[in-house]
Amino acid sequence: MCILKSFKPGRRKVLERKNNAANNADTSDREIIISRLIDAPRELVWEAMTKPEHVVHWWGPNGFTNTLEKMDFRVGGEWHHVMHGPDGKNYPSRSVYTAIDKPHRIEFCTGGTYKGDPNAIFEAIWTFEVVDGQTKVTIHLFFPDAEARKMALEKIGAIEGGNQTLARLAGYVIKT
User: Fold this and answer.
1) Which is nearest to 107 in space by CA: 49, 20, 40?
2) What string of pLDDT tens digits covers the 176 residues of the chain?
3) Domains of the chain
């Protein structure tokens, strides 16, 4: 279950209720999967994902910059950042790391602030797999329900944004 202890009580209750209803159910109608093969060693890709001095340079879709407020990379640690869009809007985000299996897997719960919508809360699982000397990064996003997934697809452009984010990660680690 994805619970964000740092969120306001109302937002936590929405997430708890929706996750409890979805436990042990088929998740295909509320998940998004994005992956990319990156021509870099897994250890380098892992470091780029877990070190604040790297994340700030590549996180988010094309044209976005970041202000990193906090990144406590440990289970239970929090990650707070603001993505600054090319449109001049700010998109604050708070996450809590729920599982870390170095260098294979990172799980975190994220709550964005897209128009204050509590459905912007989701669980992210990033996996890092060695494939022929390269690193396959797969992002699994799990939303509280199908409606929240639909909102992420249609209003936020989650797949395009995820693909752009992975492309930026690939470009960053190749230069590093």
Assistant:
1) 49
2) 564 444 444 444 444 444 544 455 678 899 999 999 999 999 999 999 999 999 999 999 999 999 999 999 999 999 999 999 999 999 899 999 999 999 999 999 998 654 455 546 899 999 999 999 999 999 999 999 999 899 899 988 999 999 999 999 999 999 98
3) 9-22+31-175 (3.30.530.20)
How many CB atoms neighbour CB 171 within 10 A?
13
List the structure tokens of 94. Answer: 């708070």
Strands, E assignment, the chain: 31-38, 65-71, 78-84, 90-101, 105-112, 121-131, 134-142
CB atoms within 10 A of CB 4: 21
